Amino acid sequence: MQPRVIQRILGLLLMVFSFTMLPPAGVGWFYGDIGVRPFINGFLVTLGTGLLLWWPARHNRRELKLRDGFLVAVSFWVVLGLFGAIPLALAVHPHLSITDAVFESVSGLTTTGATVIVGLDRLPKSILFYRQELEWLGGMGIIVLAVAVLPMLGVGGMQLYRAETPGPIKDAKLTPRIAETAKALWYIYLGLTVACAVAYWLSGMDPFDAISYSFATVSIGGFAPHDASMGYFDSPLIESVAIVFMLLAGANFGLHFYAIRRRSLRPYLEDSEFRTYATVLALLAVIVVGYLYLNRYFGSFGEDFRQGLFQAVSIGTTTGFTTTSYHHWPGFLPALLIFASFIGGCAGSTGGGIKVVRFLLLIKQGLRELHRLIHPNAEFAVKIGRRPVDDRILDAVWGFFAAYVATFSLIMLALMATGLNQITAFSAVAACMNNLGPGLGAVGDNYAHINPVAKWLLCFAMLFGRLEVFTPLVLFTPGFWRR
Amino acid sequence: MQPRVIQRILGLLLMVFSFTMLPPAGVGWFYGDIGVRPFINGFLVTLGTGLLLWWPARHNRRELKLRDGFLVAVSFWVVLGLFGAIPLALAVHPHLSITDAVFESVSGLTTTGATVIVGLDRLPKSILFYRQELEWLGGMGIIVLAVAVLPMLGVGGMQLYRAETPGPIKDAKLTPRIAETAKALWYIYLGLTVACAVAYWLSGMDPFDAISYSFATVSIGGFAPHDASMGYFDSPLIESVAIVFMLLAGANFGLHFYAIRRRSLRPYLEDSEFRTYATVLALLAVIVVGYLYLNRYFGSFGEDFRQGLFQAVSIGTTTGFTTTSYHHWPGFLPALLIFASFIGGCAGSTGGGIKVVRFLLLIKQGLRELHRLIHPNAEFAVKIGRRPVDDRILDAVWGFFAAYVATFSLIMLALMATGLNQITAFSAVAACMNNLGPGLGAVGDNYAHINPVAKWLLCFAMLFGRLEVFTPLVLFTPGFWRR
Ligand SMILES: [K+]
Ligand SMILES: [K+]
């Protein structure tokens, strides 16, 4: 542990982050909002705190060690989540409690997109823009986390993506790798955002909405500047654009990188995670559309298809945009969609959930166990593509799954102890841990009316989900703090 | 695969099983019931079918191979479940559909104890006795399955209990071991039943109830000859007796064996599974009693303690006796109790659920993954007691857990597709897969009023839970049927 180095980094982080409160202030000034001041104050407080942290530690330029990585990753979301809440807490309209401000901020930065605000359409543009921006920044953080940090830390089997460095590496130096990998992928992230915004604009959104929705789409965040979410436009064209960019944003950004460099679609077709991702979403869409049609829910196949496909992709990728109140859909559809969000996006994307590659590994391992029962003496290697996967990685994936289920169950029970009913508690934890957003029951439309303790618990759920459970859990082990 | 040998065994099994329909007929005759005939007819049909199966294959006396073990284990519960339903389907009172008769029979033989019958107090004694007897017989089957069959088959890591035979064994011959181990443990099972019946009788039950309840207690079944279950007696003494015998029946029968042979309680104290079992149940009881007391649910601590302790042990061991409508208890208590039933009884007991030893291994493996993140190069062995556990067993336990969760989710979604609401579907699958019995929502009191498709799905859930998921799953793999 190198507390001074971490202090220096957090200070820098806050100073950089403080500047993200200026664009919303600019938006507010441009639209003549009443709400510019909270952002200026938020900027000053965050910048000042960052400066105070950074100044005394500014000469501690040693490189990060493995353990520091865990602390920095968790601090990133916790500290920014708290400071990001400042403008929301200071704003007069909406009038949010500290709890609500933190919930909204954490929800944005973790790209969950669960909101406690009702009446978005009447809010100042500055606030609306800030919420979208938080998601977009959170998405940038996730790209680094998923592609550069977690593989180095070995969390939940993600050393799978560290295949070029053979074997577990001793206290690897994180900094150069983060910078180099992150830069390439951020360009892709930025490019996707621009392309998405332009496409939305060409499809009929005004520039403000086009930028706002593109932030929430590419980050798989799902915040919207309108209460009706994507349903506000009632436009099949806009929904089609959203589907395409949600699918792209839910895929491994490393694949986009290779596809661009090689100018070929083959990296997608050759990647077994991507194939599984496409298969799962297609299957989900078929079931949802079919069930809606059999129940004649919207009255025409066209409408069943349109709504079913959009919701399947939006929930399946854990984006969480809605075009309709899917939590009122008949039978098992709401529960099915919530279950699908557990699979979530691909590793190395901004999507949430358990991640497709882990889901794939769990299935392959399950099949291996079945084979082993029939052939107790044979050896079966679990493979991804043509490469056998190391036992250590498989252990980590099993462990991740069990820890995910355990965390889910405990938070669900705790929510029920605060008075939430079972459906609300179940869907709220799922929607928050999977960084999905909209739930069922009392949190079907928003999270405004649940009790404050439940909101704090759900902040934990969002952070645990986003940080892949083990990253924050490690901090709770005594061994982590021992020399 | 040796179809003729399996046919011979199933024939023998049915012939033996047919005789279990005579005691209920005797009970009916003794009490002057109207319902003797269905049992006589059931006896004749079952005996006849058994004879027809056995006769042409009677010379195929070869020993069972590994794969045959899976088929025999599954057939045992499926075939006996179907034939066991005959007297229930033939009876005039209660008037059950085929679906209901099979559900009740499977529920008995898997020691689930979920019932579709309302108005037990008005039923003929023969039917009541038969239901209890089915559970008791099911319990005998489970002892063999858990102690002799599953360890040999290696299902779900249960080769843990095959420690004395080093390494995976090649097509082990099952027969001699089953007979030898089963005999010793059946004596214990029988002894526990007699002791339990006598204790119930001395505590104030009439002889019929004493025997009936002892059958359901020692088998962790939970059927009762009264609608009010254990609450019929409203007797703290009887409930105390029940608690003691539920605790004993939920422990590994191998421990009882060693304790009796050594005339010492040390085998219990030295067994880490038993210690975890006791800890989990104690913790559960403390939370339940404490929460009831804080909510002043029964108005006095004495009553909160009595009801809370009984329900914690009854649900925690997966027995499923009730003294009160626990599904109406406040807040998270009903969900907590259902979650606790997932942990279930000890391996080698008649209890259901995932089993305490697997739960313990999952926790230890989770902790190992945490340690590995901090110390990527160190080697940690997961140990039970002082013995390190083989990686192959750990894989099997992870796999078991994932398969359990997957099966649970799929059946839950399927139930919701048949029209059950989420709470009912969730608790019904949990209560059936964990072989617990009573659920929440529409299945809080009984399973009479859900649709037939749901009942069949729940029969599957009971069988999958009882056969530890992998045993029936193996039969669905093409590899199993290939030479
Ligand atoms: K989201
Ligand atoms: K039971």
From TrEMBL, chains A, B:
Q: Where in the cell is it found?
A: Cell inner membrane
Q: Where does the chain cross the membrane?
A: 12-32, 38-57, 69-90, 136-163, 184-203, 237-255, 276-294, 335-363, 396-417, 423-444, 456-481
Concerning InterPro entries, the annotation shows: Cat_transpt, TrkH
Q: Superkingdom, according to UniProt?
A: Bacteria
One annotated Gene Ontology cellular component of this protein: plasma membrane
Q: Which residues bind K(+)?
A: 111-112, 220-221, 318-319, 435-436
Q: What is any Pfam family matched here?
A: TrkH
The GO terms describing molecular function are:
metal ion binding; potassium:chloride symporter activity
Q: What is its main location?
A: membrane
- Key words, A-Z: Cell inner membrane, Cell membrane, Ion transport, Membrane, Metal-binding, Potassium, Potassium transport, Transmembrane, Transmembrane helix, Transport
Tell me what topology the record assigns in the membrane.
Multi-pass membrane protein
> Which family would the database say this protein is a member of?
Belongs to the TrkH potassium transport family.
Function (record text): Low-affinity potassium transport system. Interacts with Trk system potassium uptake protein TrkA.
Q: What name does UniProt use for this protein?
A: Trk system potassium uptake protein
The taxonomic lineage of its organism, from the top, reads:
Bacteria, Pseudomonadati, Pseudomonadota, Gammaproteobacteria, Chromatiales
